Amino acid sequence: MMIGLRKSRLWEIALLGGALLFALFYLAPFLTIVLTSFKPAAEVIASPPRLLPSHFSIENYLHMASALNIGRSMWNSLVVTFGSTAIAMALGSMAGYAVARSHSPVVRSFFLLALLARVVPPVTLAIPILGMIRWAGLIDTQIGLILVHAALNLPFVIWMSSGFFQDIPADLEEAAIVDGCNRFTAFTRIILPVATPGLAATAIFAAMLSWNEYLFALLLTNVEAKTAPVAVSELLNVYSSEWGAMTAAGTLFTIPVLILAIIIQRRIVEGMAMGAVKG
Amino acid sequence: MTYPILMHHLHNGSVQSGQPRRDSHVRSRMRSMLQDRNFVAIAMSCPALVYLALFLLFPLILVIYNSFYHYDLIDPGSRQFDGLDNYVRAIGSHRFWMAVGNSLLFTAVVVCVEFVLGFAVALFIDRLKRGREIVRTILLLPLMIAPIIAAVAWRYIYSSEFGILNWALYQIGLIDSPSALPWLSSPAFALPAAMIVDIWLTTPFIVLILLAGLQALPKSLSDAAKIDGTSLVREIFLIKLPLLRPVIAVALVMRLIDAARTFDAIWILTGGGPRFSSEVLSTQIYRTLARYADVGFSSAIAVLFTVGLMILALCVYLILRPSDAGGRA
Amino acid sequence: MGRRAYVKGALAVLVGLMAFAISQYPDRSAEAGEAKVTVLVEGGSPAFKALQKVKPDFEKKYKVKLEIATAPYMGVRDKLISEVVSPTGAYDVAAIDVLWFPLVRNVLEPLDDLATPEVRADLFPHLLSGATFDGRLYGMPLWDNAEILVYRKDLFDDAAEQAAFRRRYGYALRPPTNWQELKDVAAFFTRDLDGDGKTDMFGTSLEGFGGHGDAVTNWLYLAAQAGAKSYVTDGRGEIVIDSQPYLKASHFLIDLIDAKLVPPTYMEMASPQNVELFKAGKLATTYVWAHFLPDLYRSAAAGRAGGIGVAPNVGGAVPGAWYNVVFRASKSKSAARALVSYLFEHDDAVADAFGVAARRSVLEARATMPEGAHLPALIRTLEDRGTFDRPALRRWSEIEESVLIPTLQTILLREKTPEEALPQARDEIALILNRQRARP
C-alpha cells in the first residue's frame, strides 16, 4: 500500500510538472513580446535574436508614446467597451429572459433570428453600417462605435443569458407573483440577483469582444475615437516596422486585461462552464 | 394559461375598491398585462428586437440589395442594376474559389486541431489532483489577447531575420538555417502560419469548455469504470466522449462559424498573401470593398459566404445534436 | 439583501461610467470659433515627421490649431475613399501618394494659384504633370523619389579589383550605365568569400516581395529602360504589358536569377531587405529608393573605405511622388492652403525627415552636403527622359495587386515564361479596365 501511494504521488507531481511546463510553453509567444518590449530598441531587430534583454530598457515604451497617442486610444477603448457592454447587457438580458420563459412562437422565432445573426460575418455588414453611421453623423465618435459594438454583442448576450435564465426554476417567479410582483418586477427583484454570476460572466465576454474588436473600429474611427487595436496596427508601416514600439503597445494593451482575468478567473470559468454544460 | 390566484387577486381588488371604475380599470388592465407572461415576454424582447432589426437585419437586406447592382463606391452615379451578374462573376472567378477553398481548409484544420488538442489537454488537466486551478488560469490568458495584437506579435515571431521561432528551431537543429522557413513570405507557408496563430489563440477556449464538461460528469462513472477494469482509453472514448456530446456539439458549431469568419488575425498577419495564398472569404470581401471599392461584387460574395455559413452551421448541428431533447424546452 | 445591493451598486457604477463616457463626446460646436486644420497622413511617414516639426511655428504664425491624423498606408486610402463617397470635411489636407489622384481628384480644391512660375521652374516636369488634371493643378508636391544605385565603393575603388575587372571584361570598372555592364558587374562580384562552397556576396539583387509595390516599380522601370514609353497602358488606353520592352525586362530579371547573381531569397526582398543585406556586406550593388540613404549613412556600412557609393539608375526610374492636397469640403480652406504652401516653403523639413524632397532648389542645395551625397544621383535619375509617371488609372491598385504582382512573381518563380504570362496579364487587365469603361 505504501509503495502504491508514493508511486501515485510521484505520478501526480510528474503530471503537474508536465501540465505547468505545457502551460508556460503555451504562454511563450506572449512572454516573448513582453520581454522584447523591455529590450533596448536596437536589440529588438537584432539578428540573431536573443530571448532575454541584455539590460532593462523602456526605450520602446517611449518610442510608442511618441509614435501614437496611446493614452487617448486606450481611453477610447475603455469607454467604448463599457458603453457597448452596458447596452448589450441591458437589452440582451431582458430578451434572454423573455426567450427563456416564453412559449410564444414570436419570441421563439426572434431567438432564431438572434442565432442567425451570430452566423453573419461582420465584414458582410461593413458597408451598410458604415453608411448608416455616416448618415447619422457619428463617424469617429465613441457613441457610433458603442452602438455598433452593442449590436455585435447582442446575439451572444441573448443566447448566453437565456441559457442562464432557463437554469433558474420558474417556481421562483411564481412565488414572487403570488407575493404581489408583476412579471417585470419579478425579473428585476428576484431573478436578476440570482442570475448575477452567469450574467457577470456574459458581461465579461461581451466586454472582451468589444475591447478586442478591430474591423469596425478601423472603419468607423479616424482620430478622435480611435481605439487601441487600430492604433497598434498602425505601427506596421512601410517606412520602418516599429517592432519595438509595437511590442510595447501590445504589452500595454494586454497586461491590464490579463491581470483582470487572473483576478476574476473563477467567474470566467464558471461562465464558460455554464454555457458549455447547458448545451 | 390562466392565473387563478392573480386573476382572483385582481378581480377582488378592482371590485372591492369602490374607486372610480375607469382609473382602476386601466390600472388593473396594465397590471394584468404586466402579469401576462406573453405580453411581458414580447415587451422585454422588443428593445433588443428593434436594435437587431436596425443593426443587423436592415444592413443584411441592404447587402443583398446591393449585390444585384454594379456599384462603384467612388462613383455612385454609375450605379446600375445588373441582376445576377455579380453572382455569375463570383462563381466564374478563380480567386473566389481559391478563397472558398482556403476558408474551408482553414476552418477544417483549425477546428480539428483545436478540438483534438483541447480535448487531450482537458483530459490531462482533469486527471490532475492539484494545481488544476493554476494551470487553468495560465491557459486562460491567451484567450484574453486581442487577435490583432496576437497577429502583430506573431508577425514578429515569424520573421525570418529576427524572429525567435526560426532561430529556436535552428538552434535545436530542426532546420538548416534561420531563413529556411519563410513563414509569411511563401505561398506554401502563409496559410499554415495563420492557422497556427488561430489555434494558439483558441485552443484554451476549447480546453476550458471541455474541462467544464468533463468535471460535470458524475464521479461515479470513473469509479464504475475502474471497478469494471475498463482501460483508460476505452473509458475516454466509449463513456466520456458520448456523454460530452451536447457540449461538443454546441462548441463545435460555434467554433466552426467563428473560424470561418476570421478576419483580424489573417489580415494583419498576411494580408491574404502572398499571392492570395492565404486569402479567405472574409479578407476577400474586405479587399474588394475597401481597396477596389466594388460594392456590388463584394456584396455578392458576402451573401454567398453568409448563406454557406448558415447551411454549414445547420448541417453540423443537425448531425451532432443529441437525439434526446436536452436542455431546451 | 447583499446580492441586491451588489446589483444596484454595479448598475450605478455602470450608469456613472456611461454618463462620464458620454460627457467625453467631443463638443464640436465649442470648437467652431477656433480655427483648426486637420491633416491626414500616413503614420510614421516623413510627412508625419515633417508636420510635427513645422507644427509649432506654423501654429504660431497663422494662429490655427494643427491636428495631425494618422492611419496606415491603406488606411489613408480607405479614408480618402470615405471622403469621396460622402464629403464630410473631416480632413482639410491630406498627404497622398500620386497613385491616388484618380480616386480623389473630384473632391479636391485646385491649387493653381499656389504654383507660381517660380514654383513651377523649381519642380521636375513629371511632378507637375502627375497632379494636373484637365489643365488644373490639384496637389503641391511634398517629395519626389526614385530608385538609385548603391554600390560598394571600397570594392569599386580598389586597384586590384579594377585591374582584374579590366582583364576580364576589357573596360574600366565603374557603376553600371547599361544592362550589360550591370550583368558584368554582378557576375564579377558574386563570390564565395570564405571557400565554403556557398556564395557569400552577390553582385546585385532584385525585388520579388509581393506585399510591396517595389517589385512592380522595379520591373516597370526596367521596361522603360528597354524602351517602353508608358506603363501598362499607353496614352490611348491600349494595354502594352505584353509588348517587347516588358518581355525584355522580364528576361533580364530571369537571366540574373539563372546565373545566380542575386540572393536566393529574392522573393522576400523589397528595398528595406536589400538595404539590410547591403549593410551586412552581402551585396556589391543594389537598387534602392533614395530615401534609404540617410539610414545607410548612419550605419556601419558607411565606415567602409570611400563610404557608400551612389550612382544614378541605369536609365529612368519610376518616380514615387507624394503630394499635399486640399479638400473642397474643407471648412478651413484658407488655413489649409496656408499649410500646404508653408510645407512647400519648408521642403527642407521634409528633406530632414526623409532624405529626399520635391524642390530642385532644396535637392541641389543639399547635394553638396554630406547627408545629401545621394542627391546628385537622384536628380540625374529624375531628370532622365525615361522617368515618367504611372498612368492615372482609378483601378491601378487592383491592377497592381491582382495582375502585376502575381504575374511578376509567376515569372520570377519560373512557373511561366514571360511569353506565356504577359498576354494573360493583358487579358486580366483588360477585364478590369473594361468593367470600368462599360458603365456609363
TrEMBL record, chain A:
Annotated InterPro entries: BP-dep_ABC_trans_perm, MetI-like, MetI-like_sf
Subcellular location: Cell membrane
Keyword Oxidoreductase: no
Pfam family, one: BPD_transp_1
CDD domains: TM_PBP2
Listed transmembrane segments: 74-98, 110-131, 143-165, 186-211, 243-264
PROSITE patterns: ABC_TM1
Chain ranges of the ABC transmembrane type-1 domain: 74-264
SUPFAM superfamilies: MetI-like
Membrane topology: Multi-pass membrane protein
Family membership: Belongs to the binding-protein-dependent transport system permease family.
Protein name (database record): Sugar ABC transporter permease
From TrEMBL, chain B:
TM spans (from-to): 39-65, 104-125, 137-157, 189-217, 237-257, 297-320
Superkingdom field: Bacteria
The entry's keywords: Cell membrane, Membrane, Transmembrane, Transmembrane helix, Transport
Entry keyword annotation includes Membrane: yes
Residue span(s) of domain ABC transmembrane type-1: 100-316
Gene Ontology cellular-component annotations: plasma membrane
Main location: membrane
Compartments, record wording: Cell membrane
PANTHER family given in the database record: BLR7065 PROTEIN, SPERMIDINE_PUTRESCINE TRANSPORT SYSTEM PERMEASE PROTEIN
Similarity comment: Belongs to the binding-protein-dependent transport system permease family.
Stated name of the protein: Sugar ABC transporter permease
Species of provenance: Sphingomonas oleivorans
Taxonomic placement: Bacteria, Pseudomonadati, Pseudomonadota, Alphaproteobacteria, Sphingomonadales
From TrEMBL, chain C:
Primary location: periplasm
Keyword set includes Transport: yes
Any GO CC annotation of this UniProt entry: periplasmic space
Superkingdom of this protein's organism: Bacteria
Pfam families per record: SBP_bac_1
Keywords associated with the record: Signal, Transport
Cellular compartment(s): Periplasm
InterPro entries, per database record: Bact_solute-bd_prot1 (IPR050490), SBP (IPR006059)
Family to which this protein belongs: Belongs to the bacterial solute-binding protein 1 family.
Protein's recorded name: ABC transporter substrate-binding protein
Species of origin: Sphingomonas oleivorans
Higher taxonomy: Bacteria, Pseudomonadati, Pseudomonadota, Alphaproteobacteria, Sphingomonadales
